[in-house]
Amino acid sequence: MRGSVYYQTAQLAKAVFVAGAKKEERMDPSHPYYNCVASYRTMETYRNVWNNFGNYLREHWGLKDMERIEAMHVEAYLAYKIEYYPTKLYAAKLNSAIGKLEFALWRYTCDKHGIGQHYDFSCRHKLLAWARKSNNLVDGYRDRKFTDPWAVVNALQNEAHKIAAAIQLTGGARSEGVTRIIKDQLLGFKYDPVSGTEKGVIVTREKGGRVGNILIDVATYDKLQKYIEKEGVFRVSYRRYLKEIRRVAVYLKEKVSGSHCFRWNFASNRVIEYQLAGYSYDQALQGVSLEMKHWRRDITEHYLSH
User: Which long-range contacts (CB under 8 A, 24 or more apart) does 173-177 make?
Assistant: First the structure.
């Protein structure tokens, strides 16, 4: 399917939206309106999720044709959403919207090709069930930042975990960007005009294959470099890393306890640095978004207001 994300979701909406369709018609597998959407508000809600999903696919996967969506894309998108500690209500909305997208894609390809293409997005059930079990879903608003992130970093006993946490806090890296780092990823030092200080530079490949540089404080860079010189490679087990962060968070009475919380702190701190350096608020949002391997500036606002 060609066209913008919004054009494509409009076409998919047409495939499943039947204004005024009766409930018994939508519940009857033999009826032409089976599983369709009759409410304008519900359709708008679903389409907003589809738009967000489509923009995510373009940004992180370079996928522009929504007919080519696969289960791995759904799984990655939901994992991406879970990183933001969504509310239980929003998670339920995501689950319903992705399920309806699966049906819409099948209906659209039926209308277009005569034979519906097979789609299976059932992975969403398992992933969201895991999110509930792991306490990654919240009842309502919850600040995702650590109150004192450096206290959390310094309380970690495992030296590799401490370095990984400091990289996430000062550079905004995702967890997959710090679980394995080799010597070739270390690019030396450069002057950072935003903070007005020298920073260490690391190139990482993170979610969706996005490659880019992150800037971290010199002390953390030196520790990382010495670790790699000694061990050959910097590597941490994410499960053990997360377990220690949660243990320390409980000890320090922090309300949040995931490694991604360091990215929330980074975003908040970095936006302030941009503004102190003379950048406008919009410029700060865009700059931080790019540093965190996003494209759109509104992504940064998620870290500041949720």
Answer: 173/202, 173/204, 173/206, 173/214, 173/263, 174/83, 174/206, 174/207, 174/260, 174/263, 174/293, 175/238, 175/241, 175/242, 175/259, 175/260, 176/206, 176/207, 176/238, 177/204, 177/205, 177/206, 177/214
pLDDT tens digit string along 212-252?
899 999 999 999 999 999 999 999 998 899 899 999 999 99
Gyration radius from the chain CA atoms: 22
Q: Amino acid identity of 138?
A: V
Nearest to 220 by CA among 260, 180, 164: 164
Q: How far apart are CA 199 and CA 214, in angstroms?
A: 9
Kindly report, residue by residue over 31-84, the tens digit of the pLDDT.
999 999 999 989 999 999 999 999 989 988 899 999 999 999 999 999 888 876
- pTM (predicted TM-score): 0.60
pLDDT one-digit tens code per residue, 178-223 = 999 999 999 999 999 999 999 999 998 776 557 789 999 999 999 9
- pLDDT confidence tier of residue 306, bands split at 50, 70 and 90: very low
**Burial of 211 from C-beta contacts in 10 A (0-12 / 13-18 / 19+):** exposed
SS3 content of the chain, % helix, strand, coil (to 5): 60, 10, 30
pLDDT, mean over the chain: 88
Dump strand ranges (E) for the chain. 180-181, 186-192, 197-205, 211-216, 234-235
Between CA 71 and CA 167 the distance in angstroms is 31
Cα dihedral value 192, 194, 195, 196, nearest 10: 60
- Per DSSP bridges, beta strands 186-192 and 197-205 are antiparallel
The number of beta carbons lying within 10 Å of the beta carbon of residue 65 is 12
- Contact between 160 and 264 under an 8 Å Cβ cutoff? The reply is no
Beta bridge partners of 199: 190
DSSP state of 37: B
